[in-house]
Design brief:
This protein is α/β, with parallel strands linked by helices. Helix 9 links the parallel strand 8 and strand 9. Helix 1 packs antiparallel against helix 2 and helix 2 runs parallel beside helix 4. The termini are far apart.
Length: 444
């Protein structure tokens, strides 16, 4: 069978890309970001650091969100991964300062930053890091669009990244697609598959989608209903019930964020409950799968004991996974193990993803990184400049070591999500140090 018509075929071509627009949305928890001076974005001209084979996928990302390489023929131009456009001519290599090479803000020996200024940029970068889209073999069969205002829909939609569907998330903005999402879509060029029932795009809730695509829409009213509809879609596509269900807090998004990474890795759907209310749609989804174990994510001040008892009345097995605050809650899920549920990351040799706890949609944007490559849980930081003590202790506990031969050791790698407004370079450097392979014995 010949190749399907590309879903971006109707996107008009432009001879000269327009300047990148300013971000149209910001998270209420963050103050407006002041303009950054030219030459201080993250990362800066990536072609100056070309040739590193280990970063090949990231340079493909840079072609979409960083301005490096050839751009697809779509309207507008995406901002760099760091969210800053460079209007002045690039300096000659001999004139470039060390910090303009993109290190350490872009990458260190044990960390790689996806430094978008918003979830749309981070989602596009994560999708291209996982699917470099150089050939048909490394393109996704479908992508999932969620709206920039729908963090809960994004967390629920992360389950569609799990095998065999493998649909990364891109972000829409009302009835339009941001340039960065359009350009990522053009490069990914999904064509559908048997696992997606030939759908090229999944559109969640109010999310926009390209008119030319074969789109499976998930339409429902309210976050709990949308999540239940996504779970039902996943079951129709796969033809089997899930192995587990996760119930996450609807009113405390920071506590819900780690569920996206686990859903993408495992295929376990994410449902929602309020602190003192079990939504009817969630209860119905639980009753539909009466033999499936349920894991409630978050402490009792996020999902109360009364709600937990209501879930127990429906499900055969219910367990709570919780930490006192969002940072500790994410670590609790990373450490947790119950049969075939849970990351059980309690030793060295793993991947990790670190994001800020005040941008819940970034959890959905980064979910593909937890379902491929180094397959790591999502961890959270609660401050731009300071690594939380609980996170430092956890990374120290799983820090890799060797005695005689470092080339036969286990290694940790950490993806850092967001620009320096979210996580500063100093914190990234500390994470790098904690992930570094260290000598723990042997001859001097």
């Amino acid at each position: 069978m010949g190749k399907e018509k590309p879903i971006n075929a109707e996107v008009p071509s432009k001879g000269t890309p327009a300047p990148p627009p300013s971000p149209t949305k910001s998270t209420p928890a963050k103050p407006p970001k002041p303009p950054k001076p030219p030459g201080k974005g993250l990362p800066l001209p990536l072609k100056l650091v070309g040739g590193a084979v280990a970063l090949a996928a990231i340079f493909i990302v840079a072609a979409i969100v960083g301005g490096g390489g050839q751009k697809p023929d779509v309207e507008g131009a995406a901002p760099p991964v760091g969210g800053v456009a460079r209007d002045e001519p690039e300096p000659a290599a001999d004139d470039v300062e060390v910090d303009e090479l993109g290190y350490p803000a872009f990458a260190t020996k044990n960390t790689t930053r996806i430094g978008g200024a918003d979830p749309a940029s981070n989602a596009a970068a994560a999708a291209l890091a996982v699917f470099p889209a150089s050939t048909a073999a490394d393109r996704p069969a479908a992508v999932t669009f969620v709206d920039a205002d729908d963090w809960a829909g994004g967390l629920a939609a992360a389950v569609l990244m799990a095998e065999p569907i493998g649909a990364p998330i891109l972000v829409s903005d009302g009835d339009r697609l941001p340039n960065v999402s359009s350009e990522a879509l053009a490069r990914l060029d999904p064509q559908g598959s048997r696992a997606t029932k030939r759908a090229q795009v999944f559109s969640i809730g109010e999310a926009a989608a390209p008119a030319s695509a074969r789109t499976q829409r998930v339409e429902a009213q309210g976050a709990a209903a949308v999540a239940a509809a996504v779970a039902a879609l996943r079951e129709r596509l796969l033809g089997r019930p899930p192995r587990h269900l996760v119930v996450a807090p609807l009113e405390r998004p920071a506590f819900a964020m780690p569920a996206a990474a686990w859903a993408a890795r495992s295929g376990d759907p994410v449902l929602f409950a309020g602190r003192d209310r079990l939504p009817a749609e969630t209860a119905a989804a639980l009753r539909k799968n009466p033999k499936v174990p349920v894991y409630v994510l978050g402490p009792s001040d996020a999902i109360s004991s009364d709600v937990l008892r209501k879930i127990v009345a429906i499900a055969p097995t219910v367990r709570r996974v919780a930490g006192e605050d969002p940072v500790q809650n994410a670590i609790a899920l990373a450490r947790f193990s119950d049969g075939d549920f849970g990351w059980n990351v309690n030793d060295p040799g793993h991947g990790f993803v670190v994001a800020r706890d005040d941008e819940p949609l970034d959890a959905a944007a980064a979910a593909p990184l937890s379902a491929s490559g180094t397959w790591g849980p999502l961890l959270l930081s609660d401050d731009a400049g300071t690594l939380p003590a609980a996170l430092r202790d956890y990374l120290l506990d799983v820090k890799p070591g060797y005695t005689d031969d470092p080339t036969r050791a286990f290694y940790n790698h950490v993806w850092v999500i967001g620009d320096q407004e979210a996580i500063e370079v100093g914190q990234q450097a500390e994470i790098d140090s904690l992930a570094e392979l260290a000598r723990i014995g042997g001859e001097e």
